[in-house]
Specification:
Layout lengths: L2 H13 L3 H40 L4 E7 L1 E2 L3 E19 L4 E6 L6 E2 L4 E6 L1 H36 L5 H33 L2 E3 L4 E6 L6 E2 L9 E18 L11 E5 L8 E13 L4 E9 L10 E9 L5 E4 L4 E3 L2 E7 L5 E5 L1 E5 L3 E6 L6 E4 L11 E5 L19 H4 L4
Parallel strand pairs: 1-22
Antiparallel strand pairs: 1-21, 2-15, 3-10, 3-14, 4-6, 4-9, 5-8, 6-7, 8-10, 10-13, 11-12, 11-14, 12-13, 15-20, 16-17, 17-18, 17-21, 19-20
Helix pairs in contact: 3-4
Length: 419
């Protein structure tokens, strides 16, 4: 049938009595087509998004973590500890004889030599006693000479049997007694002469006078019976003792003979070289530290006893412990832990023992092995056995390395591309 015929037929139908029914059927068909189009446009994207969401819930994406490699710390490092400066030798000088101070020749701050005269004590009665002892010695010497001559005469007479043996023995005994008396008299004279020498107070060693406690005319007493009986305080300062309390965990690294430096902030940035001389050999049970003593030369006298400073040791640890960032630690009810990654990038939790806090890092003595991958800043949502996507954290020293890894290390992103 031709097109013109078909058009004529439609016109006939519309002109027929049933044309109202035909128009109704066409309207219903158009409405159904419109509803189908609206459904396809509005509901299909929602249904597709719901399907994708359900698929994502079934297989969630792997969480990304940043890890660092557990590595031993530096074998050589600097240890700085507070220290006190003391004189190499210190002495409080007392009088060895009673008397009045005649004069003093040095004052605080003066540098003196060994044997130099510091003060003189006036003891008038000591001179009289010495003169009396010398006279006594002369008297005993004269008696001894008489006894010697007498004994010699009796010895000659006994050869002719002019005297008895008893008389000879008496004269010989008297001679020996006089010899003993002379020895005692000489000892007394020497004692008093020595006491007179004590009237001169001299320096026992070279050093600096740090205190003076007497004035001219002051009554001084021998010994330390009086609390204020001392005359001077002397310190040897051409070299100094520097005492440091070293903690127990560093004690094995500080040994006699090793070099060290003393820094005093008030004296500028220059450090004073020294050497470890000795250690106490025992720990203080209260502080768990051991006393270490250094000898520091002080030829120009810039350092003074009683100063406070910092001693820097350049220690060498032949077997350093593992060092990790402090942010990698997990603090919980089970103690200190870290999260590590196994070969399949699964999370494992390990207990560790921290030996020292180094500020931004901590030194771990137990729980970790070298080259283990430790998660830094682990999230609370991490679980044991969970698989993650791991990325190696870039170190400040590796900024020139575009991959953020050390030479020889495989980038973590490539290692875990399969995840």
């Amino acid at each position: 049938m031709s097109v013109q015929g078909e058009i004529a037929r439609l016109r006939w139908l519309l002109a027929s009595p049933d044309r109202a029914a035909a128009r109704t059927r066409l309207g219903v068909a158009g409405a159904l087509a419109l509803l189908a189009g609206l459904f396809a446009i509005g509901l299909w994207p929602r249904w597709d998004a719901m399907r994708v969401a359900q698929a994502d819930t079934a297989t969630p994406p792997a969480q990304t973590v940043v890890y660092v490699l557990a590595e031993p710390g530096k074998g050589k490092h600097e240890l700085s500890l507070p220290a006190g400066v003391r004189a190499f030798q210190e002495a409080t000088l007392y009088a060895r004889t009673n008397g009045y101070l005649k004069r003093w020749l040095v004052d605080i701050g003066d540098t003196v030599r060994a044997g130099q005269l510091l003060a003189e004590i006036e003891v008038p009665e000591a001179e009289r006693e010495l003169e009396e002892a010398r006279a006594r010695m002369q008297q005993v010497s004269a008696h001894l000479e008489l006894a010697r001559v007498t004994a010699e005469r009796y010895r000659n007479a006994s050869k002719d049997e002019a005297v008895s043996a008893q008389e000879l023995d008496e004269k010989l005994g008297a001679e020996r007694v006089r010899q003993a008396d002379l020895a005692a008299a000489k000892a007394q004279v020497q004692r008093l002469e020595q006491m007179r020498a004590y009237q001169r107070v001299t320096a026992p060693f070279s050093g600096t006078i740090v205190a003076r406690n007497v004035e001219v005319g002051t009554l001084v007493q021998a010994g330390t019976a009086s609390a204020n009986g001392w005359l001077f305080k002397l310190s040897q300062t051409d070299r100094l003792r520097v005492q440091v309390n070293v903690p127990q965990n560093y004690a094995k690294l500080v040994k006699a003979g090793m070099e060290a430096e003393l820094a005093v902030r008030e004296l500028g940035s220059d450090a004073f070289p020294g050497k470890v001389a000795r250690t106490a050999g025992a720990f203080d049970p209260a502080t768990r530290t051991i006393l270490v003593e250094l000898l520091v030369p002080n030829p120009v006298g810039k350092l003074m006893p009683g100063m406070y400073g910092q001693v820097r040791f350049h220690v060498l640890d032949e077997h350093p412990n593992i060092v990790i960032p402090v942010t990698a630690l997990i603090v919980g009810g089970d103690g200190l832990q870290v999260a590590v990654l196994d070969a399949k990038d699964a999370v494992q939790f390990k207990k560790v023992k921290v030996l020292r806090d180094l500020g931004k890092e901590v030194e771990v003595s137990e729980g970790l092995a070298a080259r283990e991958r430790v998660i830094n800043n682990p999230r609370d949502t991490l679980e044991e056995g969970q698989h993650v996507r791991a990325i190696l954290q870039e170190k400040p020293a590796d900024k020139d390395n575009k991959n953020g890894v050390k030479p020889g290390d495989k980038p973590a992103a490539k290692e875990n591309a399969k995840t």
